[in-house]
């Protein structure tokens, strides 16, 4: 790690914005000045300028009961109205909102007027199903326009959505439905992935199957979009086809105003324990910061830009920078259903050429996988429309940054490396294009109105050049308002570590360079980052021990060229299992098992069957030693182990398996 950091810290290349870009840039340096002069007044004026308030707010921030914040609490708005109707009212109804490309080549162009009408119909359908303010609706859909429509329709009626990534298993879906107590699930028969229809409805059926324990099921209805055309089972009375009920509903729907602190969504994310956390975001503050950052970080010119964020709506990036930010700003955006290499490795670049995409926002893991294939693939396409590139999800290594800049951005487009989290709701650290001279590998500076520090364990700000922990020192509008149903966990997880200072602890290590620019160094807890997706070691360990063969399991995130980190599991097999079975194929079976339990993204790259795990005297598994083994390093300090010989045994077993 330290050699990697030193290497990063020696990165001195800098790219100043071009004169033309700077001259036409949306963001101006006075944003920093006015935010600095009065942070609350700054956010209040952004909220007034960027959004429509049915009832204007007087109160900006209430921080009298930290860490529970409210923003704009006496104001009222409708999030869907802000993303739809007001653009139509302003005469932009004919502007294309969504340029949708199915993996199989299907295409749809949907204007703001059409999107407003469709969301209105679905809002009626939801109301007819009894959905009202604060009710929860689970959304389990592929990347099709209906995913956006569903989110906005839920928001329009004041209800709360919980989008569950379509790649998650029935068990993961069930846990999320139960935790939130969802009344309706919106899903599809299936969607296209890697050239085939991948079914979704069966997972919903499994999630809702009778549990045989007499527990009351919260879900009353399942609304099903027909996309894959695959056969599905039907539960009369519970299931409804979207195409039966939506077209029949009225396309006129009055968007009622709701208080700014009305919950907008719950999004589950991995924490350090096995149980995913339901991160809660509310309406006014969230939408303000999503819109502000989308406008300024992506230099949005809504009349001429074609924006494309490649994230799935199942992740926070898909919430803030596919659904809410772009639509609040009246942007035209591309949405693509499928995988980047279907049916050919140039698919993304073909889409950029076809729609003349100007702004591309994606993840380092995707960039590295394109690097691996080679520049000849993107170079077959005309990428000259691209004028701005964004990165999110994990640290982007300078090599990938440079490749992104030169091959995709043809040495012209600025790159914004944006640091933020499910919990922060919107971008917190990023260059502003046209203002900041960018540096490969560094996320650089807090956005205007956000206060970030790098501190030591005692909460003291470190000197430039030193490393420490990343904290947010002041409340921000799109901050999480809590963990669904678990206020204690909210306080413990984020606020206890620096309670004396009142700082939010992000869980990331960071360092400031001599210019004061911030470099992110990865998680400091047991959360892994695989292809930009957060996975918890504990969650995968509990899936592994749920298998009949496993006695004990330890999971680590090991460095991986392509995915940033990869899941590597060490498992001890039960004696009883060993006596009755051969170990042939067991590692593969355990990999597949995790994929079924949690979802394919959680499937370990390697599963090693070992006789013992390294533990401290207090019984804590020392994952850092296992990470050394997984990465093929010299094993670090073992003096705190109860049995110092155990690492030699494990190394022997891993070497044999390799
Ligand atoms: C938006 C998103 C959050 C974690 C975060 C950090 C990592 C995100 C990053 C980055 C370095 C960046 N992360 N962006 N690390 N540079 N530009 O990814 O949210 O899924 O909640 O993950 O991702 O470790 O703490 P989420």
UniProtKB/TrEMBL annotation:
InterPro entries: Ac_CoA_lig (IPR011904), ACAS_N (IPR032387), AMP-bd_C (IPR025110), AMP-bd_C_sf (IPR045851), AMP-binding_CS (IPR020845), AMP-dep_synth/lig_dom (IPR000873), ANL_N_sf (IPR042099). Residues 30-83 form the Acetyl-coenzyme A synthetase N-terminal domain. One of its GO terms (biological process) is acetyl-CoA biosynthetic process from acetate. Mg(2+) binds at residues 545, 547. Keywords: Acetylation, ATP-binding, Ligase, Magnesium, Metal-binding, Nucleotide-binding. Its cofactor is Mg(2+). Transmembrane segments: none annotated. Its EC number is 6.2.1.1. GO terms for cellular component: cytosol. The keyword 4Fe-4S does not apply. Acetylated. Deacetylation by the SIR2-homolog deacetylase activates the enzyme. Residues 87-484 form the AMP-dependent synthetase/ligase domain. The modification N6-acetyllysine is found at residue 620. Residues 539-620 form the AMP-binding enzyme C-terminal domain. It catalyses: acetate + ATP + CoA = acetyl-CoA + AMP + diphosphate. Coiled coil: none annotated. One of its GO terms (molecular function) is AMP binding. It is an enzyme of class 6 (ligase). ATP binds at residues 393-395, 417-422, 508, 523, 534. CoA binds at residues 193-196, 317, 531. NCBIfam families: Ac_CoA_lig_AcsA (TIGR02188), PRK00174.1 (NF001208). Belongs to the ATP-dependent AMP-binding enzyme family. Catalyzes the conversion of acetate into acetyl-CoA (AcCoA), an essential intermediate at the junction of anabolic and catabolic pathways. AcsA undergoes a two-step reaction. In the first half reaction, AcsA combines acetate with ATP to form acetyl-adenylate (AcAMP) intermediate. In the second half reaction, it can then transfer the acetyl group from AcAMP to the sulfhydryl group of CoA, forming the product AcCoA. This is Acetyl-coenzyme A synthetase. It comes from Microbacterium endophyticum.
């Amino acid at each position: 790690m330290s050699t990697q950091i030193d290497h990063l810290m020696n990165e001195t290349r800098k790219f100043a914005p071009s004169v033309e870009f700077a001259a036409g840039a949306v963001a101006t340096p006075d944003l920093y000045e006015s935010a600095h002069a009065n942070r609350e007044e700054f956010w209040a004026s952004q909220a007034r300028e960027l959004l429509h308030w049915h009832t204007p707010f007087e109160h900006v921030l209430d921080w009298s009961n930290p860490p529970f914040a409210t923003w704009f609490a006496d104001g009222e708005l409708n999030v869907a109205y802000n993303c739809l109707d007001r653009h139509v009212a302003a005469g932009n109804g004919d502007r294309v909102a969504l340029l949708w490309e199915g993996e199989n080549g299907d295409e749809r162009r949907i204007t703001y007027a059409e999107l407003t009408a469709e969301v209105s119909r679905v809002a009626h359908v939801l109301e007819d199903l009894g959905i009202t303010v604060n009710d929860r609706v689970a959304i389990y859909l592929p990347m099709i326009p209906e995913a956006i429509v569903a989110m906005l329709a839920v928001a329009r009626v004041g209800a709360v959505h919980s989008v569950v990534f379509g790649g998650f298993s029935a068990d993961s879906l069930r846990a999320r439905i139960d935790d939130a107590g969802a009344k309706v699930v919106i899903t599809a028969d299936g969607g296209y992935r890697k050239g085939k229809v991948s079914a979704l409805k069966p997972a919903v059926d499994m999630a809702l199957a009778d549990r045989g324990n007499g527990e009351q099921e919260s879900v009353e209805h399942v609304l099903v979009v027909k996309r894959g055309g695959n056969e599905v089972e039907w539960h009369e009375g519970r299931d409804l086809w979207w195409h039966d009920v939506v077209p029949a509903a009225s396309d006129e729907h009055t968007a009622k105003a709701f208080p700014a602190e009305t919950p907008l969504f719950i999004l589950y994310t991995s924490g350090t324990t096995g149980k995913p956390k339901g991160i809660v975001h509310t309406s006014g503050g969230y939408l303000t910061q999503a819109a502000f950052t989308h406008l300024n970080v992506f230099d949005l010119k809504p009349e001429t830009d074609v924006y494309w964020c490649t994230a799935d709506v199942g992740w926070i990036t898909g919430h803030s920078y596919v659904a809410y930010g772009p639509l609040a700003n009246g942007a035209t955006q591309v949405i693509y259903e499928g995988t980047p290499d279907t049916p050919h490795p140039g698919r993304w670049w073909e889409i950029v050429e076809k729609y003349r995409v100007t702004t591309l926002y994606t993840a380092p893991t995707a960039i590295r996988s394109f690097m691996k294939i080679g520049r000849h693939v993107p170079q077959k396409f005309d990428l000259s429309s691209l004028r701005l590139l964004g990165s999110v999800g994990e640290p982007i290594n300078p090599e990938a940054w440079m490749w992104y800049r030169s091959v995709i951005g043809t040495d012209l487009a600025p790159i914004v490396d944006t640091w933020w989290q499910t919990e922060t709701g919107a971008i917190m650290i990023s260059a502003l294009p046209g203002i900041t001279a960018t540096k490969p590998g560094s996320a650089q500076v807090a956005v205007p109105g956000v206060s970030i520090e790098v501190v030591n364990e005692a909460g003291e700000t470190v000197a430039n050049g030193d490393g420490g922990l990343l904290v947010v020192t002041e409340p921000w509008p799109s901050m999480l308002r809590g963990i669904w149903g678990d206020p204690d966990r909210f306080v413990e997880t984020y606020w206890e570590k620096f309670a004396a200072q009142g700082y939010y602890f992000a869980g990331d290590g960071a360092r400031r360079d001599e210019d004061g620019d911030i470099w992110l160094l990865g998680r400091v807890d047991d959360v892994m980052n695989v292809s930009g997706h957060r996975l918890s070691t504990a969650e995968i360990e509990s899936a592994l021990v749920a298998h009949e063969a496993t006695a004990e399991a330890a999971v680590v995130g090991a460095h991986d060229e392509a995915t940033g980190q990869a899941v590597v599991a060490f498992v001890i097999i039960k004696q009883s299992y060993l006596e009755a079975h051969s170990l042939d194929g067991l590692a593969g079976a355990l990999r597949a098992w995790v994929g079924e339990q949690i979802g394919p993204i959680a499937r370990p790259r390697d599963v090693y069957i070992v006789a013992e795990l390294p533990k401290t005297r207090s019984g804590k598994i020392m994952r850092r030693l296992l990470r050394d083994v997984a990465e093929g390093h010299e094993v670090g300090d073992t003096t705190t182990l109860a049995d110092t010989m155990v690492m030699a045994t494990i190394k022997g077993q891993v070497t044999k398996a390799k």
